[in-house]
Write a structure and sequence with these properties.
Helix content: 25-40%
Number of strands: 9
Strand order of the largest sheet: 5-4-3-6-7-9-8
Shape: globular
Order of helices and strands: HHHHEEHHHHEHEHEEHEHEE
Largest sheet: 7 strands, mixed
Structural class: alpha/beta
Strand content: 5-15%
Number of helices: 12
């Protein structure tokens, strides 16, 4: 291994790598220049026949030189790749640190499965005009670079074998902004004793069997526990969402005339059959989507698994869950959805800039004439008038229905308010 002084002497500093690359590029350019311009002066004398022969000869030589140039370019690319690999290996052996530009924003050099998953990777067929590049970059949340140690742990597994039981850990990474997470080459555990789900439409209002869920990540280990938890004391996300025989059974059926809108009244604002597909942001256990499906409307429900199997529960009901956070850009194309609904989730707990971006994103995915049902938006009276009404108006929705009401469960002195609004994206 040698002494410390010898290792230090052989260590290749970061800037030396860059200078070697620049030197290689300069030498290559000079060689090409000498190659192309040597012997390029032709003495053209005589009549037109001589000129024609010279031109034909020049064309032939140019054609040959192009082919030789392509071969030389391939050789130079190969040599450059070998040199870079050699420099990297020398740097690794002597403790050299890669330059920050080479790390693409990562604190440290990527290794193992994380390096493979983060890419980029060269396209087998070369440059792709649709992509505008010869590389394919896996989709990965930019904030993942801030949590490299945690992400390395997430990507530590045996390829082809069962994935670690790390659902809570993975979701926390997502909520920190590392969303989407990188793909993995391991297999999720299957629920023990899994059976086929109930058939539609019975599945919409049937509590799924406990064997439909891997319960490792949750305090409750069966649905009976979740239902009873909602009936008891304590605060949990979507407290009684799993009790399909309780309040869930009557949600959105009646129009109370205040902030409680009914589904049928909302659908009646549009010509029959024109509300066909939609999104429920923060859809809990999927009851809004279930009510819409009974009316022929397909709704995707975004939800997180906060100490409960919300995504599995929605899927068992025969509905479509989407495991993304409220900070995620809506994964739908512009001008496509007929309706977007959100109850409680889009409220004053979200930082104002992020909330405004979210509202513009809702506008983006709605088609002209599409409906945005903002259901029980929560804030204080001061915030409503000074911040949120101007924010909603800036986005440019038409107001079809707009109702405010005091939220009194914590007392009059709190000055807390609900806003329910039925908004429409303008037709033009």
């Amino acid at each position: 291994m040698g002494s410390a002084e010898e290792r230090k002497a052989w260590r290749l500093p970061v800037f030396f790598r860059s200078k070697l690359k620049v030197l290689l590029l300069v030498v290559s350019t000079n060689l090409l220049s000498v190659y192309f311009f040597s012997g390029a002066n032709y003495a053209i004398v005589g009549g037109s026949d001589v000129l024609t022969r010279e031109l034909n000869s020049t064309r032939l030589k140019l054609s040959e030189s192009r082919e030789e140039h392509a071969q030389l370019r391939r050789r130079l690319e190969t040599a450059s790749g070998l040199l870079e690999a050699l420099l990297s290996e020398l740097g690794r052996r002597h403790g050299d640190q890669a330059a920050s530009d080479d790390l693409d924003g990562w604190p440290d050099e990527l290794l193992g499965e994380l390096k493979l998953a983060a890419g980029p990777h060269k396209l087998p067929l070369g440059y792709n005009h649709n992509l505008g590049t010869d590389e394919l970059f896996p989709t990965l949340g930019f904030a993942c670079r801030r949590f490299q140690e945690e992400l390395t742990r997430y990507m530590s597994y045996e390829v082809g074998k069962e994935c670690p039981s790390d659902g809570v850990f993975a979701q926390r990474l997502m909520l920190k902004g590392c969303e989407p997470l990188p793909r993995r080459r391991c297999l999720p555990a299957s629920p023990k004793g899994y059976v086929e789900p109930a058939a539609l439409p019975e599945s919409l209002w049937a509590t799924p069997p406990d064997t439909s869920v891997v319960w490792d990540a949750y305090a409750c280990k069966n649905y009976s526990c979740l239902v009873n938890r909602g009936r008891g004391r304590g605060s949990h996300d979507c407290n009684d969402c799993f009790d399909l025989k309780g309040r869930e059974k009557s949600r959105w059926l009646a129009d109370g005339g205040g902030v409680d809108f009914g589904i049928d009244g909302v659908l009646a604002t549009k010509p029959k059959g024109t509300v066909r597909i939609g999104l429920d942001i923060g859809g809990g256990s999927g009851t809004f989507a279930a009510r819409m499906r009974e009316r022929g409307v397909t709704v995707v429900s975004t939800t997180m698994d906060f100490d409960g199997p919300f995504n599995s529960f929605i899927a068992s009901r025969g509905l479509l869950p989407m495991h993304i956070s409220v900070a995620h850009r809506l994964p739908f194309f512009d001008n496509t959805l007929d309706i977007v609904h959100s109850m409680h989730v889009l409220s004053n707990w979200i930082p104002e800039p992020m909330l405004e971006f979210a509202l513009y994103d809702v506008y983006r995915v709605l088609r002209p004439g599409g409906l945005f049902w903002l259901d029980h938006f929560f804030c204080t009276g001061e915030q409503l008038n000074a911040t949120y009404v101007p924010m909603i108006e800036r986005v440019g929705f038409n107001k079809l229905r707009w109702v405010t009401a005091r939220k009194l469960d914590r007392g009059m002195e709190k000055n807390e308010w609900y806003l329910s609004a039925l908004l429409e994206r303008p037709m033009t």
